[in-house]
TrEMBL record:
Protein name, entry field: GAF sensor protein
A Pfam family: GAF_2
Annotated ranges, domain ANTAR: 169-230
GO MF annotation list: kinase activity; RNA binding
Swiss-Prot/TrEMBL keywords: Kinase, Transcription, Transcription regulation, Transferase
SMART domains: ANTAR
InterPro entries according to UniProt: ANTAR (IPR005561), CheY-like_superfamily (IPR011006), GAF (IPR003018), GAF-like_dom_sf (IPR029016), GAF_ANTAR (IPR012074), WH-like_DNA-bd_sf (IPR036388)
Domain of life, source organism: Bacteria
Gene3D superfamilies in the record: 3.30.450.40, Winged helix-like DNA-binding domain superfamily/Winged helix DNA-binding domain
Length: 252
């Protein structure tokens, strides 16, 4: 891809997110798409977003895959890794070859290598000068995060912050309600994924693809479909039948 073509691709992605932010949008769906765009624009195979509450506790909000989700959660459990380091320092982190970072992250590195990753990077999510989380990027082959790629990743991280804060200044009184809503939405979506995995007898990733695809095809928010699936027992049979019909369509 030429430099001009790549620049156009990046601008198209940024413009599409800005358009989304100006209308009613589903936070979990938008952040999931943002991580997916990272794999399209950058030399990485997976990405994930960790966001902190006003007390500094990080939680996972979105990831490209179950593999990325598990690695992000492992960072939180192990208390080490690129996202935690980037969040703590407020600076980008780039490790071109994980084999050289065993002393730096003795627990995280073996888990990442076992997951098939060879390089990891992270950029901080900032608002009003303060780090509020981190965007993690995971590559399956060694390689540094180049300056152009770091700038693109940082731009996407800023978009994620705007999506979560939705134009409000980052104070405890504004962040806590937004995070509570985002985390609650994420939990409901995770529950719906597990439910559909059993109903459809597919992997968790495929269940999530069906859930997102169905919500997009019907012009509904991902979180609202998940909520109806898990919380509304009266409409659940009809909704499940509709999702099964969607999942069986060869053109989807």
């Amino acid at each position: 891809m030429t430099d001009g073509a790549r620049e156009t691709q990046v601008l198209d992605v940024v413009a599409s997110f800005v358009d989304r932010l100006l209308v009613d949008f589903d936070t979990v769906d938008l952040l999931t798409e943002l991580t997916e765009r990272c794999t399209e624009l950058l030399d990485v195979a997976a990405a994930g977003l960790l966001f902190a509450d006003p007390f500094g506790k990080l939680s996972l909000l979105a990831a490209t895959s179950e593999q990325a989700r598990e690695l992000e959660l492992f960072q939180l459990q192990a208390h080490e890794g690129p996202c935690l380091e980037s969040f703590g320092s407020g600076e980008p982190v780039s490790v071109a070859d994980l084999h050289e970072a065993v002393r730096r992250w003795p627990t995280f590195v073996p888990a990442a290598l076992d997951g098939g990753f060879a390089s990891v990077h992270a950029v901080p999510m900032r608002a009003a000068g303060d780090a509020m989380g981190a965007l993690g990027l995971f590559g399956v082959r060694p390689g540094a995060l180049l300056d152009d790629d770091r700038l693109i990743a940082q731009t996407l991280a800023h978009i994620a912050c705007v999506a979560i804060l939705q134009g409000r200044a980052p104070t405890p009184s504004t962040i806590i309600p937004q995070l509570r809503t985002a985390f609650t939405s994420r939990v409901v979506v995770e529950q719906a994924k597990g439910f559909l995995r059993e109903v459809l007898d597919v992997s968790t990733e495929d269940a999530f693809r069906v859930l997102r695809g169905y919500s997009h095809a019907n012009g509904e928010h991902l979180t609202e479909v998940a909520r109806r699936l898990m919380k509304d027992r009266h409409s659940r049979p009809t909704l499940v039948a509709s999702i099964l019909d969607y999942a069986a369509r060869p053109e989807r």
